[in-house]
User: Fold this.
Amino acid sequence: MESIAKLKWRCRRGTKELDFLLEGYLDNSYQQACSEEQALFESLLTMQDSQLIWFLLGDHIPDSNELAALVKKIRTATNF
Assistant:
């Protein structure tokens, strides 16, 4: 697992919306999440910005049920 500081840096994507969603999850939910969810979030951060925009801001749903649940959680937790 990466340090919170490194994860925070990886959450900065260059668009206010993505930054808001990713940093919001990191600040409010990441540390309370189980290790599987934390690993899933870290894998989410490896995706290209275009994929993240589709999942977090658009109508696309990830193929993985676990990833889809995390995306929903991120969107719901930040009221986006």
Q: What stands out?
A: Residues 4-77 form a domain with the DNA polymerase; domain 1 fold (CATH 1.10.150.250).
